[in-house]
Amino acid sequence: MVKTIFNNIYEGYAYSYPHKHSYRRLNNLQLPLLWKEERKDALFLYVHLPFCEMRCGFCNLFTIANPQSDMVDAYLQTLERETMAIKAHIAPQAFGQMAVGGGTPAFLQPHQLEKLFTIIRKLGARPEDMPSSFEVSPATVTREKLRLLNEQGIDRISMGVQSFVETEVKALGRPQKNNEVYAALDLLKQYPFQTVNIDLIYGAYAQTLNSWLHSVQEVIRYDVEEVFMYPLYVRPLTGITKLEQQQEDNRFIFYREAKQLLLSSGYRQVSMRMFRKEGLIHKQTARSYSCQEDGMIGLGAGARSYTRSVHYSSEYAVARHNIRSIIEKYIAKPHFNEVDYGIELNKEEQQRRFVIKSVLHGTGLNLNRYSTLYGNDAMQQYPLLQELVTAGMALVQNGILRLTEHGIDHSDAIGPALYSTPIKQLITEFELQ
Ligand code: SF4
């Protein structure tokens, strides 16, 4: 039987757990000690470049538009200092996956991109040997940059397009021209990247079902390997909160129609947001990175790093002047051997994270693995899991709990419903700057 057990389908995007709004000041934790007991043979390397050529009205990411070139150069110099400190204090053995994001890292000039990859390699990371992703925007794509990314071993390019209808992107506070989008897609097709991903947004002001499906048709026509469909969330301090436009919430209808279109066009659904072409093969590493069990090293202001018991980063802000001052603080940082902002995860939160990541991210929750790691029965510990099964939103097969199609549709309700009470409290009390 299938039924709905949530009042609000669009509660929030459980991209990571605990959410960054639960981070607070920490008491200067020593980096070597934090990583001493961690496994370091399949780490995730995330590099954050907090720069874009424009600030989109819907975006709450840690980024600023059009910084001076000397700020970018100074940032790269600091990134190099941070890298050398990480090498000395953490001594990563091997990376299983890598992503360069932001912001729009393709905002960098070619000589700055060269420098960026020199820094990445100094850490011992070789993009050509692992799944390696890089974010671009239509306006920052050039032949020279794509050649460089390809030569450096990047195999996945992710481009935020959001919509192929100019009035829609304008209403989203992103003045983007379609000819720029098509030119970027044409150029991308000329390079042998294994995966091209396009991000789209549904629920935009002035969007109709037809105009939304037109955007989905365009990514299908371009035969891209991956599509991410993001529901629009109007977030505090972002540009579109000022527009005060009201319209009916059609997000779920738009989502379902687009899903059907993609499924009937050779894509399979990996998660609520992610659709991937059937039969894609990914680079193999000695050991694959597991988001539930392996750590993440974040480089740069705004990048998060995860050990089992501590998640940390620089401070977080959305308003331009606050982001700018955090970046300046990062550039002026005298050393990188301790951590002063983040959250310590007790055993209960570590277990909860394992459950949330597993349930929401395609792999499913391996109940035996959970019990081996934590000595508990997840179904008993989290009654919501049983409720999901009863409601037809999840199935248990061969010891793995996986969301059904109906469950995947409700991911943005299920994730937040699994948050602990103390984390919910911290998120509520967070003062966004
Ligand atoms: S949506 Fe992308 S391009 Fe726009 S401001 Fe955010 S990171 Fe930059």
From TrEMBL:
GO terms for molecular function: 4 iron, 4 sulfur cluster binding; catalytic activity; metal ion binding. Residues 37-268 form the Radical SAM core domain. The keyword Protein biosynthesis does not apply. Gene3D superfamilies: Aldolase class I (3.20.20.70). Keywords: Iron, Iron-sulfur, Metal-binding, S-adenosyl-L-methionine. The keyword Metal-binding applies. One of its GO terms (biological process) is porphyrin-containing compound biosynthetic process. SMART domains: Elp3. One of its GO terms (cellular component) is cytoplasm. Its cofactor is [4Fe-4S] cluster. It comes from the Bacteria. Pfam families: Radical_SAM. This is Radical SAM core domain-containing protein.
